[in-house]
Amino acid sequence: MTAAQDRPFPTVAELEAQEARLVLPHFTYDDAWALGSLLVELSREREAPVAIDIRRGAQQLFHCALPGSSADNDAWIDRKRRVVERYSESSFLVGSRFRAKGTTFEDSSRLDPDRYAAHGGSFPITVRGAGVVGTVTVSGLPQEEDHALVVAALERTLAASGN
């Protein structure tokens, strides 16, 4: 059991606070490259078998598949990303909202589970004054670890921007 599995999932309030805090001043092609490269670095340090995807709107700006990942991770990326695009919230937060109501996303969202997955790992890229402009997604670890990896990278990115 990993350390993340030893503790409960973050609460809805904790996930909402992350999203309120992780708002970037801008998001350019170079920013996407830097964020993706940071995620690769963090993943390699953890020997995480993940795939990483960053998009602005419909355009994929970064993609990397690390050793141990598979095409299944790309399918999970697509499903988690669609949740963020639809709800403008992290896939983990959306799933957590359903769990907090005593149900599941799959049972209650009325969305095709082959196309949507409210599992942790996809996070909205939000720019101050512009709102949600894209997504950053990781797949390959347990959902809370996928989510935590993305949050760690966004926290570092925000700190490096001086905000």
UniProtKB/TrEMBL annotation:
Descriptive protein name: UPF0303 protein BBN63_22525
- Family membership, please give it: Belongs to the UPF0303 family.
Under the heading Pfam families, the entry gives:
HbpS-like
Question: Where is the signal peptide, in residue numbers?
Answer: none
